[in-house]
Amino acid sequence: MHKLILSVGLGALLLAFISNAQSKDLAENSKAIFARINDLTISTGEFQTIFRAAVRQKYYHGQVPEAELEEFRQQVVDDIVTQVLVHDEALKQGLQPDRKEIDAKIDSFILKNAANLELQAQRDTIVPRLQATLERRDLLEQMEVRIKDLPEPGPVEIKQYYLDHPDKFTEPKRLWLSVILLKVPPSAPQNTWKEAETVAADLKQRIEVGEDFAGLAKEISDHPSAVNGGDLGYLHQGVLEPKVHKKLEVLAINQLSNPLRVLEGIMLFRLNGVQTAQLRPFEDVKNRAASLLYRELQTETWKSYVANLKSAANVEVHE
Q1: Which of 119, 162, 266, 270 has CA 20 to 30 A from 41's CA?
Q2: Of 49, 65, 36, 37, whose CA–CA distance to 8 is shortest?
Q3: What are phi and psi of 246, to 5 degrees?
Q4: What's the CATH architecture for 10-147?
Q5: Of 35, 69, 2, nearest to 315 (Cα)?
Q6: Which CATH class is domain 173-276?
Q7: How high is the pLDDT of residue 7?
């Protein structure tokens, strides 16, 4: 029976090794069959070890949110199946791992954990497993590189991709904005926030009856743009808080917003202009179009390759 470890970071791998050596439920489940992939049998205990390592790697608190549990579990299962099948293909094709690089990684790992007494005590067990894991990962990476080594798309293909995906090459609508910020500490009492809102409302009235926005921004604003009279230039959606951007989108040119409360304090905006969404000329984006198309072709080719491996394999998973 092969030992399987999911492709996670070395820290998570170490935790998996220690768990594998100590876990009682692994021993209890060592004979329970979780999956068969061609001639390989994976026990429930092995899957649990792999799954725990994957959880620790992806989720900071080491626990999968209930709503994501089943989907994540299926991702781990799919990854295991993919690794087994691709690794077998690598062996069939006679690929060899880069042992020099792998030895260097192991030496680095051991050096970084020189003070870890638990690791040192289990070194004779951990190092061979780590080496096997890194060799497996290296072969998987070699296979992926080999499968994704495609001819570069030609000019006609690139131009057609550009025409078929205008959304990828369209500059979004942008707002030309100016701002005056009255800074308020987040922890300030409510009366301080109210006072700032009152000042901002007064500024709005003064500007609407003729005072210069830029002059007031230079004099009063706590925003870095104050030196430029509050001019923020053109901003696309996503730069400002969504609730703020939504309120600014409905303003008319030269119209002021109401005082808006944000994390930094109270902001007063003016809409100076609008740049509508524009499709960029092909000549300006053809290199990006070529790169995007090539990556998509690589992804599709890899997915198709893995799907064909799975369709030809004998895979049984006992949920």
Answers
A1: 119
A2: 49
A3: -60, -40
A4: Orthogonal Bundle (1.10)
A5: 35
A6: alpha beta
A7: 45
User: Cβ(271)–Cβ(255) under 8 Å?
Assistant: yes
The pTM for the full model equals 0.71
CB 261 within 8 A of CB 193: yes
DSSP state letter for 313: S
Extract the tokens encoding 182.
């009255």
What's the Rg (C-alpha) of the chain?
Answer: 29
CB distance 234 to 174 below 8 Å: yes
pLDDT the model gives residue 189: 94
Q: Is 134 exposed, middle or buried (0-12, 13-18, 19+ CB in 10 A)?
A: buried
Question: In sequence order, what DSSP letters do the residues of 184-230 get, joined into one string?
Answer: --TTS-HHHHHHHHHHHHHHHHHHHTT--HHHHHHHH--SGGGGGTT
Calculate the alpha carbon distances from 214 to 174, 178, 272, 287 in Å: 21, 8, 12, 40
For 3: left if phi > 0, alpha if psi spans -120 to 50, otherwise beta; the answer is beta
For the chain, which residues make up each domain, given as ranges?
A: 10-147, 173-276
